[in-house]
Write a structure and sequence with these properties.
The chain is of the alpha+beta class. It has a single domain, classed as Glutaredoxin. Helices cover 24% and strands 30% of the residues. It is built from four helices and eleven strands; from the N terminus they run E-E-E-E-E-H-E-H-E-H-E-E-E-E-H. The strands form four sheets. It has a five-stranded mixed β-sheet. A hairpin with a 5-residue loop joins strand 10 and strand 11.
Amino acid sequence: MQVTFKGEPLEVKGTQPSVGDKAPDVVLQARNGDEVRLSNFIEDKLVVLSVVPDVETRTCELQTKSFADKLAEEDVIYLTVSRNTVDEFNDWNEENDLDLVTLSDTNGEFGKAYGLEIDLGGDTRLARSVFLVNTDGVIRYVQVVNEVADEPDYDETLEAIKNLK
């Protein structure tokens, strides 16, 4: 699969899971530095996985804050996943006066399992994407954004959430 970054093609390494697939259960780092499994968040609510290349960039910040605002009234679990370190995420949350659940993929397990690794300026990052995972741990919606510099389609995601409830 290919995406673009400012119009330049980028190869997305791996194969992304599809709607109907079991969500890969990977190990990520929570804000306190502890390792957590993605399955730890799958309870009795739909899980929204918002994947960003780097939360310290403008579009990723917009995506993270926009989903936080748009999902505030939804009965879902909202998670942001990136290659950002725990410290970078914690600093970002503090600077933005937020307390969002952010999960660090510094070990690369999520990027490989979800087939989202891209090379951005020599750094391996994650392609901008959104996944909805139901209470059975099954992926019910996938959006991989074609242009990494663009925000995801929030309305499409919200419609999918509405249809899955």
